[in-house]
Amino acid sequence: MGALLLVLLLALILGGLGFAVHVLWWVALVVLVLWIAGFFFRGAGESRGRWYRW
Length: 54
Prior knowledge:
mainly alpha; rod-shaped
């Protein structure tokens, strides 16, 4: 019984980890698209050619 619970717990942890990694891939993709859009939209408006504001 303990081994069955251990296997089920391991499956739950790995399934949750896989879901979290999948969500993080989508978040990374959205951030990349926003970064590229900011690169093009801000780059056209500034005369110095700097697209970032630090």
